[in-house]
Amino acid sequence: MNIEEKTGILIIGAGPSGLLAAISASRFTSDITIAEKMYAPGRKLLLTGNRRCNITNLHPMDDFYKKIHPNSKFLKHAFNVFFAEDILNLLHDCGVETAEENDRKIYPKSGKAEDVLVALMGKLNERKIYVTCNLKIKSFSLKNNLIDCVECEDGTILKPEQIILCTGGKSYPGTGSTGDGYSLAEKVGHCIIPTYANLVPLETEGDNASRLQGLSLGKTGVSLWINNKKISEIKGELIFTHFGLSGPAIINLSRYAVKDIDKEQSVEIRLDLYPQYDEQRLDFKMQDDIGKHGKMKIDNLFKLWLPAKMADFFAEELKIDRELTAHQFSAEMRKRTRNLMKSLRFKIIGHRSFKEAIVTAGGISTKEIHSKTMQSRIVPNLFFAGEILDLDGDTGGYNLQIAYSTGWLAGESAASNLYRKQRSLA
After folding, report:
1. Backbone phi, then psi, for 141, in 5-degree steps?
2. What pLDDT score was predicted for residue 423?
3. Can the peptide bond before residue 70 be classed as cis, meaning omega within 30 degrees of 0?
4. Is a pLDDT exceeding 60 seen at residue 1?
5. Which of 44, 73, 202, 395 is deepest in the core (most CB within 10 A)?
6. SS3 102
7. DSSP letter for each residue of 138-204
8. Which residues share a beta bridge with 106?
9. What percent of the chain has pLDDT over 70?
10. What is the 3-state secondary structure (H, E, C) of 235-300?
């Protein structure tokens, strides 16, 4: 027999957007149900920032807009309502100390993502709002263009007044983020912008990357070329893996590469190992080092210019006799070495799956959502927040900030709707 339960606000998904929606709504009402299909809340939050949780960053709001795609200005109101300082104040009030690291990124001082989750859950527990785990939503039923009831897989029938859908995207599916919310939204009339794995490592042709496996490079010039045309370039860190290329620089450029890889376009990553030097200055440096170390073997000369593993790789790639000494290093050899240093090329033949993607691109079209409330333009008692939206940012805390801000606004708006409805019935 089905169990029917009435609730004021039903929040589906207990990730960062769902938890912030609940905290926001709980300022006005305790009539809140949080349904989480996994055995525990916040599974994906615990993985963020290499399990350290890059909470947010302290860049100005205008910089956030530059790092979020495809329609960052949709977030203008949400950011004005709840932004970086707000999530930090909330966490500080809960006893979480934070620390600023490179590029103004903010982490828990403890280095533990768990501290952020415990703080958010503690705030809800204070207000006697609890997460119901192992409760998966099966379907919505409409009546008079409103969601009238919600059927759960265990047979429970929920009768919510307002619903906030915070089920995430498809990235890291082992945490429960398997795209369930897209089908729920689509069945009540919403358009889903096609989804794809974003902020994801790239796979390369041949064995060049695997020969350098484990080597990390910092502040490298990294450019993306599609059909021999440069699309984007950044300076940053990268790591060579058994399958190809990873690390922040590669992952941030992947957003521009994934679609073209899937379309079988010619995609290439080019590395500039000396972005601080133009070709002429680099040549002067090489000549100067050769002049100072004329009797040095080629192997050791390369190690002056490159990490040891890459020095071996260069000697092999350039087919230079390692028994030669520096003063035998000809202008032609110098030119070939310099060219490889300034443009080390890797053909991209694929990308890793949603299992390794930091975030999902695509999702619920923002054209169908009121930016000032996160309310559906199609089903008035339905709201959205977090990764389910067609919004995604670069690495560095941008995606979590989207989740906090949209979750907070959705919770506040749903609570306001609930209050107005209850008042009209009084």
Report:
1. -120, 135
2. 80
3. yes
4. no
5. 202
6. helix
7. EEEEEETTEEEEEEETTS-EEEEEEEEE----SSSGGGT-SSHHHHHHHHTT--EEEEEEES--EEE
8. 56, 100
9. 99
10. EEEEEECCCEEECHHHHHHHHHHHHHHHCCCCEEEEEECCCCCCHHHHHHHHHHHHHHCCCCEHHH
Are residues 351 and 197 in contact, defined by beta-carbon separation less than 8 angstroms? yes
Is 391 in contact with 68 (CB distance < 8 Å)? yes
- Where exactly are the structural domains of the chain? 4-196+361-425, 201-352
Instruction: Determine the average pLDDT of the residues in 238-243.
Output: 98
CA distances from 102 to 59, 85, 141, 254, 376 (A): 12, 18, 48, 22, 38
Give the distance, in angstroms, between the CA of residue 341 and the centroid of all CA atoms in the same chain. 30
What is the rounded CA–CA span in Å between residue 267 and residue 260? 7
* Separation between Cα atoms, residue 270 and residue 178, nearest integer Å: 33
pLDDT tens per residue across span 378-404: 999 999 999 999 999 999 999 999 999
Check the CA dihedral 75-78-79-80 and report its sign.
Answer: positive
Dihedral sign, CA of 336, 342, 343, 346? positive
Judge whether 81 and 91 are in contact, CB under 8 Å: no
Architecture of domain 4-196+361-425 in this structure: 3-Layer(bba) Sandwich (3.50)
